[in-house]
């Protein structure tokens, strides 16, 4: 089983969902917030969301360097 990387723990938003939203036209954290709920709770993920946006724009570094490296099985017990 592959791991799923979460950008937003509070809303269980994955890296894949964030990049899909960016590919669909999201260009700001506010847009990611409206579409996915990123940053709507504790705000700890805002920096990671910004890094994803920046990485997508520059496409020079790995986005996984900036996100929470938590596997799905690790977080499954802490989510609602
Ligand atoms: S980690 Fe995204 S709002 Fe808390």
How would you characterize this protein structure?
This protein has 80 residues and is mainly alpha-helical. The protein has one domain (6-75): BFD-like [2Fe-2S]-binding domain (Arc Repressor Mutant, subunit A, Orthogonal Bundle). It is built from four helices and two strands; from the N terminus they run E-E-H-H-H-H. The chain has a two-stranded antiparallel ribbon. Strand 1 (6-8) and strand 2 (13-14) form a beta hairpin. Helix 1 packs across helix 3 (46-58). The longest helix is centred in the middle third of the chain and has 13 residues, at 46-58. It binds FE2/S2 (inorganic) cluster (FES). Residues 8-11, 38-45 line the site of FE2/S2 (inorganic) cluster.
CATH topology, which one? Arc Repressor Mutant, subunit A
Written as H for each helix and E for each strand, in order along the chain, the element string is EEHHHH
Which CATH C-level class is it?
Answer: Mainly Alpha
Bound molecules: FE2/S2 (inorganic) cluster
What coarse outline follows from CA principal-axis ratios? globular
Measured as a percent range, the helix fraction is 40-55%
β-strand number: 2
What's the CATH architecture? Orthogonal Bundle
Figure out the total of helices.
4
- Output mean pLDDT: 83
Quickly list its features.
80 residues, mainly alpha, Arc Repressor Mutant, subunit A, two-stranded antiparallel sheet, 4 helices, 2 strands, binds FE2/S2 (inorganic) cluster
């Amino acid at each position: 089983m592959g791991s799923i990387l979460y950008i937003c723990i509070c809303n269980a938003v994955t890296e894949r969902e964030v990049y899909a939203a960016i590919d669909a036209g999201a260009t700001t954290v506010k847009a990611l917030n409206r579409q996915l709920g990123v940053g709507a709770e504790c705000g700890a993920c805002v920096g990671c969301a910004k890094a994803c946006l920046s990485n997508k724009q520059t496409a020079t570094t790995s986005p996984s360097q900036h996100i929470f490296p938590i596997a799905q099985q690790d977080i499954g017990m802490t989510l609602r």
